[in-house]
Amino acid sequence: MRCITSFRTRLMSKLFQLGGYVGAMTFLAACSVYIPPAAAELAQEPLCIADHPHTITVEIADTYDSRARGLMFRESLAEHAGMLFRYQDDRPSSAGFWMYNTYLPLDIAYIGADNRIKAIIAMDPCPSIDPKRCPSYQPGVSYRSALEMNQGYFAKYNIGIGREIVACPQNK
């Protein structure tokens, strides 16, 4: 079990200011929540969306730990960058994502086995240090993968439900 040092340092300082020793100890108890360690570096791949002029660089989250960690603790994400969560089998419509320890507002596109976007949901950071108080963003449709991007990306580029994820052209 571990907490990320920079996050812990900032929060410990604030808790000592607000709640003294008791507040700080409460935080340390909350750190017993399992947070998978960061991968040394996740594989990156180009991802293209039909009729979209930009190639998206995605980090691939295809293991339990990489999917559980996702974009936690990130403070920025390039405009045409994201994280692609891959699964071996279809995920049920109730299997959602949450924003615990995620600082960036994100959009998530749930993608079916046919490589078409099935649902898009805007997700806001969860301010709670208690993961049980963070909402789950359920797609309401089964999906095979999910693409997280900066919030507003899909709307900005008019990418909606039904759009297909396609092989990137060699010269793109």
UniProtKB/TrEMBL annotation:
It holds the Pfam family DUF192. Keywords: Membrane, Transmembrane, Transmembrane helix. The chain crosses the membrane at residues 15-35. This is DUF192 domain-containing protein. It comes from Pseudidiomarina taiwanensis. The lineage of its organism: Bacteria, Pseudomonadati, Pseudomonadota, Gammaproteobacteria, Alteromonadales.
